[in-house]
Design goal:
The chain is built from seven helices and 16 strands. The chain has 310 residues and is α+β, with helices and mostly antiparallel strands. Strands 1, 4, 5, 6, 9, 10, 11 and 16 form an eight-stranded antiparallel sheet that branches. Strands 13-12-14-15 form a four-stranded antiparallel sheet, covered by helices on one side.
Length: 310
């Protein structure tokens, strides 16, 4: 068998809670295993057909989820594929073409595996070259099944406890960012634009989103606000952009943070923060059909996490 290095991205699961006693503070940097894992198990308890999330051209499902052998991690995988296009198949060497035998409702199976560390809530996600299973698509998938857990949330909040789960804030997936994002920014000769978006119809306990929501009161139909810092001078450039982003409050409330500028070669370049999660690679076997050993990948992730301080 051949071997292949598979990239694994690092994220942080958090389960925010509201403390209504005393100051009523919002406790965000925490992970409640029981609540989040109970939510995933609610999804897994559904028949397979009811676990499918169809967006109109892509389907995704949580196909497996279980406790690891050592009981320190959870492991599972998502399956996703695009459908709707039926074209010819082409041979890679002869370039001979033949009509595809798939139907308009079928697509190429794409499995992406993940591991969750029980104590910390860190999420380790296999890189998906097809970009079907990503942090954002997982978030959209899980939120589609939020109604399954509403009764549980209401029951939890009725219990005598200082902490409460607030609407639509059962969990969040935070990116553990790599320094490579800031390194790429510093390589730009000139920085001309920095943009970021906030969805203000979600996360009602965010100071950032609440401020935006207040400013947009009365606007109907909008769900996202985009901020832009722009330098329009012909050969001008913005400075201290890195410092601004590092100090940005609640940076994980923003989406599509992009810095645009010019490289030393004169070519324009756009650097996207979401493309720079912290990562590491695992060496796995590949069979004759080009399929990696997913069990080796899971075992390798768990072994890596246990042996290192990533």
């Amino acid at each position: 068998m051949d071997n292949k290095w598979v990239k694994v991205f690092m994220y942080q699961l958090i389960t925010p809670k509201l403390d209504p006693s005393g100051t009523g503070s919002y406790l965000e940097e925490r992970f409640d295993e029981n609540h989040f894992i109970s939510f995933l198990r609610k999804i897994m308890d559904q028949p397979l057909q009811d676990r499918i999330f169809d967006t109109g051209d892509k389907v995704m499902t949580l196909e497996s989820f279980s406790l690891s052998d050592d009981a320190d991690f959870y492991e599972g995988h998502f399956t996703a594929f695009r459908y709707g296009e039926v074209t010819n198949l082409v041979h890679r060497r002869t370039f001979r073409k033949r009509p595809s035998d798939k139907t308009i409702d079928e697509g190429d199976e794409n499995n992406v595996y993940f591991v969750i560390e029980r104590v910390t809530g860190r999420l380790f996600l296999q890189s998906d070259g097809k970009r079907l299973v990503t942090r954002n698509s997982i978030d959209k998938y899980l939120r589609n099944f939020y109604p399954l857990f509403e009764n549980d949330i209401n029951q939890i909040n009725r219990m005598i406890s200082p902490l409460m789960i607030t609407p639509m804030n059962l969990y969040a997936i935070k990116t553990i960012y790599a320094e490579s994002f800031y390194e790429e920014i510093n390589k730009l000769l000139r920085i001309k634009k920095a943009t970021m978006q906030v969805k203000f119809n979600q996360d009602i306990n965010s100071d950032v989103v609440n401020a935006i929501r207040a400013g947009a009161e009365g606007v109907d139909g909008a769900d996202t606000i985009e901020y832009a810092l722009i330098n329009k001078e012909r050969r001008g450039s913005m400075r201290k952009v890195e410092q601004f982003l590092r100090n940005l409050e609640e940076i994980n409330k923003y989406e599509n943070i992009v810095v645009e500028g010019t490289e030393e070669s004169g070519k324009p370049k756009a650097i996207k923060l979401e493309d720079h999660p912290k990562d590491f690679s695992i060496k796995v076997s590949v069979n004759e059909n080009g399929i990696i050993s997913f069990q080796e990948l899971i075992n390798g992730i768990i072994d890596k996490v246990k042996r290192s301080s990533i």
